[in-house]
From TrEMBL:
SMART domains in UniProt: GIYc (SM00465)
Entry protein name: Excinuclease cho
Keywords assigned by UniProt, alphabetized: DNA damage, DNA excision, DNA repair, Endonuclease, Excision nuclease, Hydrolase, Nuclease, SOS response
Coiled coil: none
GO biological process, one term: SOS response
Organism name: Rouxiella silvae
A molecular function (GO) term: endonuclease activity
Record-linked InterPro entries: GIY-YIG_endonuc (IPR000305), GIY-YIG_endonuc_sf (IPR035901), GIY-YIG_UvrC_Cho (IPR047296), UvrABC_protein_C (IPR050066)
Domain GIY-YIG: from-to ranges: 24-99
Length: 279
């Protein structure tokens, strides 16, 4: 069954003229309605014009296209700048049609030690420097559900994970069902149990900020150079010179999950990327 947007889709002839004003370069684009104060949608691309054309041909976006009266754009030197600027603008302006990259100031993570497993919160612990954190969750319930999922798969003990109460040295009910390896009744050491948990969570490990302070990441095109200033996985802004980058000295207000993911996926994996330590 087609949804309402698809049934009412028409090519946005009223926006056709805007394509001629859009560059075929990297950057961020903004869809505005009649009120230019608040954007309807913010996106990014390595080719702004081509990406906006794709929106025009997407029937599922009929409502957005009908509401849009103009499109603005901000060019960047490359993809990294576009990714960081898009994330920042969405958090600051909260567009109506963007469902991702919204600001989440309070996050949860699983902290695993040799003896305990607990859910900790980003407003209480600095996630950029804490050790043995696994996963970024919007709610405590989401963190617990992930812990249960891994426990069921790896035969971990709910009691040892703090998910249910245990009687001293007595086997849990799941052990009798073969779903627990027996840390609850000393068939397995707690250290071994926690090591198995860490190994299962390893792909979700949160990396500590690997620099002593602020850094500037250089991104170049044939015509221009930009410096993206970052600290503790937080994007502080983009400037055109290294001297200007040294003047950007803002204390990150919170741990930003989206900036963290962007930096891990698109920056730390870029070999040969020019990074300057500012502190």
């Amino acid at each position: 069954m087609q949804n309402e947007n698809t049934l009412l889709y028409q090519y946005p002839e009223h926006l056709r003229h805007t394509l001629d004003t859009l560059p075929s370069r990297s950057g961020v684009y903004v869809f505005y309605g009649q009120d230019h104060t608040f954007p309807l949608y913010i996106g990014k691309s390595v080719n702004i014009r081509s990406r906006v054309q794709a929106h025009f041909r997407t029937a599922a976006e009929a409502k957005l296209l009908r509401m849009t009266s103009s499109i603005n754009y901000f060019e960047t030197v490359g993809e990294i700048g576009a990714l960081l600027l898009e994330s920042q603008m969405i958090k600051e302006q909260r567009p109506l049609f963007n469902k991702r990259l919204r600001v989440t100031r309070k996050l949860c993570s699983l902290q695993v030690s040799d003896g305990t497993t607990r859910v900790i919160f980003s407003n209480e612990t600095d996630f950029s420097t804490a050790h043995d954190l696994f996963g970024l969750f919007k709610t405590k319930m989401a963190a617990i559900e992930k812990l249960r999922e891994i426990a069921d798969r790896e035969r971990l003990c709910y009691g040892a994970l703090g998910l249910e109460k245990l009687s001293n040295k007595r086997a849990c009910f799941r052990y009798s069902l073969g779903r627990c390896a027996g840390v609850c009744c000393e068939k397995e050491s707690l250290e071994a149990h926690q090591l198995r948990l860490k190994n299962a969570l390893e792909a979700m490990r949160i990396r500590s900020w690997p620099y002593p302070g602020r850094i500037a990441i250089e991104e170049k095109s044939e015509q221009q150079t930009e410096y993206h200033v970052l600290n503790n996985w937080f994007y502080l802004g983009t400037v055109n010179t290294l001297d200007a980058a040294k003047e950007v000295n803002i204390t990150p207000p919170h741990f930003d999950r989206d900036s963290y993911k962007i930096l891990c996926q698109h920056i730390l994996k870029h070999k040969g990327l020019a990074i300057t330590l500012l502190d």
